[in-house]
Amino acid sequence: MTQMPKKQGLYNAQHEHDACGVGFVAHIKNQKSHDIVEKGLEILLRLTHRGAAGADPREGDGAGILIQIPDDFFQAVAPDSDITLPAVGEYGVGMVFLPQDDAHRAACEKIIEDTITAEGQTVLGWRDVPVDAVRADLPESVLACEPVTRQIFVGKGSNCADQQAFERKLFVIRKIFENQIADKAFGDKAKFYVNSLSTRTIVYKGMFLSHQVGAYFTDLSDARMKSALALVHQRFSTNTFPSWELAHPFRMVAHNGEINTVRGNINWMNARRHSMKSKYLGDDLDKVWPLIPENQSDTACFDNALELLVMGGYSLTHAAMLLIPEAWSGNNLMDEKRKAFYEHHAALMEPWDGPAAVAFTDGIQIGATLDRNGLRPARYLITDDDLVVMASEMGVLDIPEEKIIKKWRLQPGKMFLIDLEEGCIIDDSDIKDALALERDYKKILAETQIQIEDLNVDVEVKQPQHDDLLNKQQAFGYTKENLKFLMAPMAITGMEATGSMGNDTPHAVLSNRAKPLYNYFRQLFAQVTNPPIDPIREEMVMSLTSFIGPNPNLLGLDDEEPTLRLEVHQPVLTNQDLEKVRNIHEATQGKFRTLTLSMCYPADSGAAGMGVAIESLCKQAERAVLDKFNIIILSDRDMDEQHIPIPALLATSAVHQHLITKGLRVETGLVVETGSAREIQHFATLAGFGAEAVNPYLAFETLIDMHSRGHFPSDITASNIEPRFIKAMGKGLYKVMSKMGISTYQSYCGAQIFEAFGLSSEFVDKYFKGTATQIEGVGLDEIAKEAVMRHQLAYGNSMIHKKMLDVGGEYEWRVRGEQHALTPETIAKLQHAVRTNNYDLYKEFADMINNQKGRLITLRGLFKFNKGNSIPLSEVEPATNIVKRFATGAMSFGSISHEAHSTLAIAMNRLGGKSNTGEGGEEVERFTPLANGDSMRSAIKQVASGRFGVTAEYLANADQIQIKMAQGAKPGEGGQLPGHKVDNRIGKVRHSTPGVGLISPPPHHDIYSIEDLAQLIFDLKNTNTDADISVKLVSEIGVGTVAAGVVKAHADHVVIAGHDGGTGASPMTSIKYAGSAWEVGLAETQQTLLLNRLRSRTRLQADGQMRTGRDVAIAALLGADEVAFGTIALIAEGCVMMRKCHLNTCPVGVATQDAELRKKFIGKPEDVVNYFMYVAEETREIMAELGFKTFDEMVGRVDMLDTDDAVRHWKSEGIDLSPIFHQVESSDNKSHSQSQDHGLDTLIDNKLIAEAQPALENKTPVVINTGVCNVDRSFGTMLSGKVAKKYGHAGLPEDTIVINAKGTAGQSLGAWLARGVFINLVGIGNDYVGKGLSGGRITIRPPEETPIKAEENSIVGNTVLFGAVDGEAYFNGIAGERFAVRNSGAVAVVEGVGDHGCEYMTGGTVVILGETGRNFAAGMSGGMAYVFDASGAFEQRCNMAQVSLEPVLSEDAALENNYHLGGDLETHGKVDIRHSLSQNDEKILHQLIVRHVHYTNSARGKEILDNWDASLEKFVKVIPVDYKRALAEREAEQKTKQVKESAHG
Amino acid sequence: MGKPTGFKEFERQNLTYAPVAERVTNFKEFSKLPAEDDLKTQGARCMDCGIPFCHNGCPVNNIIPDWNDLVYHGHWREALDTLHSTNNFPEFTGRICPAPCEEACTVNLIGDAVTIKNIELSIVEKGFENNWIQPEIAAEKTGKKVAIVGSGPAGLACAQQLARVGHDVVVFEKENRIGGLMRYGIPNFKFDKAVIDRRMEQMRAEGVEFRVNQHIGVDIPAKSLLDEFDAVVLTGGSEKPRDLPIEGRDLQGIHFAMELLTKQTKRVLGDDIPEDEFISTKGQHVVVIGGGDTGSDCIGTSNRHGAASITQLEIMPAPPEEPNKLITWPDWPMKMRTSTSQEEGCERDFAVTTKRFIGENGKVTGIVCARVDWSQDDSGQWKMTEIKGSEFTLKADKVFLAMGFVHPVHEGMLDELGLAKDARGNVSANMNDYKTSLDKVFSAGDMRRGQSLVVWAIREGRQCAAAVDTYLMGETGLPR
Q1: Chain A residues in contact with B470 (beta carbon < 8 A)
Q2: CA separation for the pair B294, B288 (Å, rounded)
Q3: What is the mean pLDDT of the segment spanning B258-269?
Q4: What is the pTM of this model?
Q5: Which of A44, A610, B114, B412 could form a disulfide with A784 if both were Cys (CB 3.0 to 4.6 A apart)?
Q6: Close Cβ partners of A1392 (under 8 Å, ≥ 6 residues apart)
Q7: Which of A479, A485, A797 to mutate to test the interface with B (most CBs of B within 10 A)?
Q8: A236 with A19: CB under 8 angstroms?
Q9: Which of A516, A1213, A1274, A1281 lies closest to A956, judged by CA?
Q10: DSSP letters spanning A14-65
Q11: Where does A49-162 have alpha helices with state H?
Q12: Average pLDDT of chain A?
């Protein structure tokens, strides 16, 4: 039933991700009909584009349908199988996938039957489910794993009092036989799977494309097949080997999204086993374990948890609120009682965190809920004949407009429920208020909750001891750099310091120095399959609250005996906090009892003693819990000359996991008191492996000592230090959590969001179980040896270290510090080589980089080439060919100077390679070649999350469009260009205001999931059908699987970047600790693509600290068609690795905008050309040696690589490179050889372009009339691409192409719509309307015949006008979340918006004639918004961090306030706000509303205009503070200029 | 880090010198450090480079950015610890090092380098001023005895390091004072010899024993050291001067530079040098052959004697005034440098070869020279050809040969021990273990590497100490 290949090489099925389209249809009054089933299948069809096909276009990722038990049907067909059914409710049906093998099948069936009988129920019989694989047109690959589908009918036994009890029993029975069969070694046990076993619902699903569901299961077309609800799901899996059982729906849910914290959730769930009791399940509870089997998808795990809660007595909605709580902490709009409800439940269970639109049902109720951040779309409509349709998008069923009475969307954290038995819709607040009032949660909280600051314990705080400080610091591995770069800045500023450029130091396992264990772990981050969060601008969803101590019984719904809970607002404890915890029994009448256990052991037992010490520590912890200590402090305070500390991370994880295994973990809190924790990575790993709180006593001592020695600015007092350091840690943790899309510490704690790099799997399995490790490496012996080395540094005889810390040398090169690839010698050698055109010098340089004997730096330093059949050099293709495969890395104009940027472009164009714009647009002048034939045009146009300068014209001038999903130096993070770097030139290119800082959000707000990326690829391909679409990913475990998804999403080109890539500015932690090596990521990608037979469809590019021809050859052998170079290209043009890019003080004019310093730029295109020719030449020499005539022959020939054992050292002994060198059997080509089919031929835009020919050719106006439906995506985009290509950003005269459309538009209506194109839609829009709007106009209004009030209903979906640059939009209705995010110039009127409206906006004008959601204007740095604030509550919903609110002055008042008037406001309402500041607000607003009414006939607009004076008072103007300042400055400047000019004139 | 924009805001400030007319009247040091606040400002010019090229440009790998920053922020004492962690004698290098670090300084690529050397000197002088520099006496004695032959910078550095880890160290010196070439090869006006005495005091307290007037291999058999000591370190320098065996070489008045300099310094230090042994250039025409530092020292000394004229000859062509930094930085560039001694008055002539000395009455009176042309052959080798008809004669009453040293003196100690030598005639030993071909005999400094800078000698002395300690103890806490 599964095609999933077994783990091989770097491929591991566990990395599977999926996302998709989800939907349901239900009859509110529970009227069952076959029509509902048919409608369900129709929804599936209409969501096809959200799914994906594999290498064979008939090979689906999975689809299915959940319906109520069709009793009529079963009663009718049961007799055919000799089954007699009792009345509905008295029997359950199991839908079971069974092995094809007769014996195995019989064995499974027997276990099932025996279990049913043993549990006191009756086996009524089996029915063979008729299937039609031929009609379904299933491909061979799917048929190869087709299971036998049978239904088992179970009669209710006498031990079940009612249907609910029977339902519970069926759940227990299923768990029992599932676990039993899983334990048996049937040939392929995966072939057994239970889709559903229930008295109420049944699931039909499989490895299908959406149309195949109904075709395969002929039952579904039987007219007797009736249900009042149908829940459907179309899956988009990253791999093409999805298996039958991974299709949704599961027993209770269908899910679109991703549970990021699933590892932790599973662990915590298992940890609860012994503390859980249920009065509903009673002894049966013991039979359901393991509740959550390993190797399932995240949704399957979620389904297991939800089932348990519901079977354990929670209502469906209550359980859903517990699992996916809305963001309550810090929500000032939430009712106190509801907050108390959430706060109470927070201690019961950590959230299952991640983007999620979950539709759930138990057959009686059906509903859906959205994650706290609203990261997946879910929209619904209600008809006047009691039908509810909910789906990922609008337009999935053709329902006459006049029947629709409500069109709405699911909002972040909100729930929507239909109770079919009650026959009503229950909305979010009714559900939640009812639950919040069920018990007096405020009272319960008051009785049980202890906040640490309220703890009344007299404690004596341990005082710092300065005399022994240096020794302690050394024993815990402190370096000078820790103090200088990491700790001091945090204590001084309350923030982590920023650094720049990439990482050219070795991974911990490659370094022969002693490294902290923390360094062996790499932070995971979100890319493509889920979005990172912006922890600053969207802080409202984040929480650092941590609970220390025992968890209450999860299933103790109404337990009377309350469990006390200790709460801290953030997990870094001061010394005082810690002493309170240590003595907590005094304040809690002994209800809390704390025991401190030492993590140190006698130094004389040396490295060999550590294993025993850990074992003993675990035993002590176990004993402590059994002795009813419910808080354990693991401490290394007693470290001294005679005692070595076990690395705190090792001790913590070992104890945490030991207690989980013993089922005791939730009965105690785990607090770590350690001298080792000093960096954000340290706290993050401790948290990730189970610490509920950490006290970094030595970090505090160190900072206080530095302060006392006068190393801090004079305005910092000793009392500032701890709070600032803690604040910085909090922010840092937010950042680390948010890069994986996790919003609460509670979920992050124990979630193991790390991969191990260079730790042996034996070590990991023992102490960090469940953590992925790909390349093996050191074990306990080496880790212990490192601890001993540190201890000896402190107490041994090292002369240098008697007075000072080790230099470190991680962040800056130092002679006695860590190894770097880029050193004074290598840089000088290379620069001298290219400047004197001396290949011999280059070869010396290359040798210094390539030969890493004694100084391992990169993983590839351990590689060697196998012997090939060498050929003469002359037979190898020329260097001029090879350089065409080279690109320069994405470095934005903004982070580097114009000189540096254009020099690279000229050089790459001379070579025929490609340069990359980086994020931030490109000056239009560069699109035209220079007189001497050179060109400054970058072939690759990057599209990053900020979308700065991404216009239709920019895209039209690309050979390749690169979507930056992540950047090696800071994957999962956004960026910021400080105001002082935004000069006039950069402001112009980025369509922003000079002097105002710019924010690139962590996520692309139009990519929260794989199918969103597919949509963006589709959008971009439409804008420029000649350009290849590239997706840039960063290596991390599972990147190959993500890449497979990306290729299925039709990317023509995929970049795999290493963690070590450069940056103009990035937090120190991110440069060092996030992401993995490209060698691993590339190999995993190549292997996974080959297994999927997707490899040949895409070009692969490797990127990340590439420097020499050897690097190129290795990349090619591992599977790269192309190679990109960043840092080294900068060095060729003069960079000397100052690492000062973020300070704007680059002395060689490379990474600065300072006019004086830019003059120091010394690079020449020739230098860069020389460098790349040398690299190609060196590559050729290797090719000749290996016997490859062409580069293509070399790609993917991993058999030519092996491990060079000669260069290993004591730590790298354990590294196993064989997974990297694994050769995959595949019928696919190893290199790029065929193009993607983007499916552009059948698009409606082809028709538009044909009809618009007169306009395109000679600007003759045309009017086009057409219908649209939801599968018509990116409507108008291809047409706009043609306009932009020919006419640039100026486009066509207004209304040259008018398109009157009717119906439901698919996603991305009018994306990058060019000036002169007007889309006038009557109907409704979906997500991303007007994305990247580049001058065109979009208007949407409901049809005349609709009975709904437009201003109270949805008109467009989420993320509308994202990255809009220019143009107009008028929407007669309400928009979803994130309206006009990153708008930089468009004008829009809408009648209400969801959360995060106008986020990160930098320009343009938005008028909102109704309510907004929360967090309006977060990160908004430019442009203006006018909000009609009828209720006066707007201020509470607005994020005031960067904006001010002002009244809109009437014209008279404005005239008085502003002594001058400027700007022509009569230009069709397209008000160029940038010309003037605050004058004419009234005029602008009035005019925009007039136009809104003109285009949409808006009733709300008319009403406002009719009562203008009264309405005006209710408008609030939102203006960013910085923007206002910059405009004022500019106005003043212009005035001075005018005065001067007139004086001179 | 200093101040991020310091290099843009502040100008380089050099040492100030006493006026020429004043300073040539005596043999006292004449340079003066800037005021403390100005030095801090100079520290602020440091950019705290991600790759500090100076750190590598410096042979002892001084952690320059760190102490620049500490000085900028006024943490002098920590700066001193950092400085001492890589360099035993910053007061030596701070005075007489040609400062390759400053050539490697990144600010030098685009402007004037940070005044690293002055900052170094100021840190250590402040340390002495405040009595921060105290003996670092080993907690325990090892009982191992080490002999160090030669008391130049390599020997002293090696001795100090070894004494600090508890070995009994004896330094043997053939001259009457400790310091080797630093003592007598460098004039007092550039390097006040009290600076060496001050450091010796610390070393004595740390347990180093100095024995002067002990010429090993001449007065005392070298082999006797092998019997008496657990290890012997040879740091006798590279003292065999390059000679100019041309016609007239045996005329009176032609001296190796060291003769002039040694006698002069001895007299300055109070030794009684009879007039007939002393070399004075008063009122004489002086020609110095060789364009390096020693040549300059001869010029400075001659000026102080009151020479009638001084001409310095260099066989190589005049280097460019400004090097092409794009292809020289961060390495040591060939460029026209004018030493303070040259500044005090002399003629410099380049691309000149010396053909023969001419004399009267057995005394030199002039030199016949010719101009040469330098060109590269096909293999890139530079070749010199004499320009026909370019001969000319220089008047000369005194000629000083300052053309460098070829290798250590072989006669005596080295011959006695029969040590293997490298192709250039230096004692053969590598830079990891510094072991010679004879067990328990080590060698470092110019004796091993050939003539070089004081700072290289300090580096080798330190590294050799670590090697010796490892040899004696099996492991070492000494840094390399």
Answers
A1: none
A2: 9
A3: 97
A4: 0.94
A5: A610
A6: A1351, A1373, A1374, A1375, A1408, A1409, A1410, A1411, A1412
A7: A797
A8: yes
A9: A1281
A10: GG--EEEEEEEEEETT---BHHHHHHHHHHHHHTGGGS-B-SSTT-BS-EEE
A11: 71-77, 102-118, 140-143
A12: 92
Asked whether residue A1486 carries a pLDDT value surpassing 80, the answer given is: yes
Residue B222's nearest CA partner among B234, B210, B211, B213 is: B234
pLDDT band at A457 (very low <50, low <70, confident <90, very high): confident
Q: Do A1138 and B82 touch (CB under 8 A)?
A: no
**pLDDT per residue over A357-368, tens digit each?**
999 999 999 999
CA neighbours closer than 13 Å in the CB half-sphere of residue B361: 1
Residues forming a β-bridge with A546: A568
Is A498 part of the contact surface with chain B (CB cutoff 8 Å)? Answer: no
Residues 6+ apart with CB under 8 A from A1535: none
Query: How many angstroms separate the CA atoms of A254 and A972, rounded?
Result: 27
Find out whether A64 and A40 touch, Cβ atoms under 8 Å. Answer: no
Asked if the model's pLDDT at residue A1453 lies above 80, the reply is no
The CA-to-CA distance between both ends of chain A, in Å, stands at: 85
- What sign does the CA torsion over A648, A654, A655, A656 have? positive
d(CA A656, CA A768): 9
Q: Is A969 on the interface with B (CB under 8 A)?
A: no
CA distance A1084 to A1079: 9
Q: Do A710 and B75 touch (CB under 8 A)?
A: yes
**pLDDT, averaged across chain B:** 96
HSE-up of residue A210 (Cα within 13 Å, Cβ side): 25
Tokens representing A721 are 């230090």
In sequence order, the 6+-apart residues with CB closer than 8 A to the CB of A928 are A937
Contact indicator for A1341, A1500 with CB cutoff of 8 Å: no
Q: Which helix (H) or strand (E) holds B168?
A: strand B168-172
Average pLDDT, stretch A136-158? 92
- Residue listed under structure tokens 């490209």: A1078
Please answer yes or no on whether A799 and B164 come within 8 Å at the CB atom.
yes
Q: What is the pLDDT of residue A1115?
A: 98
* pLDDT tens figures, A375-394: 899 999 999 999 999 999 99
Using the Cα atoms of residue A421, residue A426, residue A432 and residue A434 in order, give the sign of their dihedral: negative
Q: In the annotation, is A20 catalytic?
A: yes
Please check whether residue B57 touches A, CB under 8 A.
yes
Residues 6+ apart with CB under 8 A from A1035: A968, A1056, A1057, A1058, A1059, A1075, A1076, A1077, A1078, A1080, A1081, A1082, A1084, A1104
> How many whole angstroms separate alpha carbon A690 and alpha carbon A87?
50
Rounded Cα distance between A1151 and A886, Å, is: 22
Dist CA A1043 CA A1177 (whole Å) = 31
A1361-1374 mean pLDDT: 97
- B-chain residues within 8 Å CB-CB of A799? 161, 164-165, 477-479
Phi (first) and psi of residue A1518, to 5 degrees: -105, 120
Residue B74: its chain A contacts at CB < 8 A?
A: 710
Distance from CA of B289 to the nearest CA of A (A): 33
Residue A1179 tokens, joined: 């590559």
SS3 content of chain A, % helix, strand, coil (to 5): 40, 20, 45
Say how far apart CA A1410 and CA B471 lie, in whole Å: 84
Residue A187: is its pLDDT beyond 60? no
Please state, for a pLDDT cut of 90, what percent of chain A lies above it: 78
Q: What is the pLDDT of residues A912-967, one digit of tens each?
A: 999 999 988 999 999 999 999 999 999 999 999 999 999 999 999 999 999 999 98
Contact B110 A1160 (CB under 8 A): yes
Whether A1545 shows a pLDDT value over 60: the answer reads no
**Mutate which: B5, B51, B85, vs A, most A CBs within 10 A:** B51
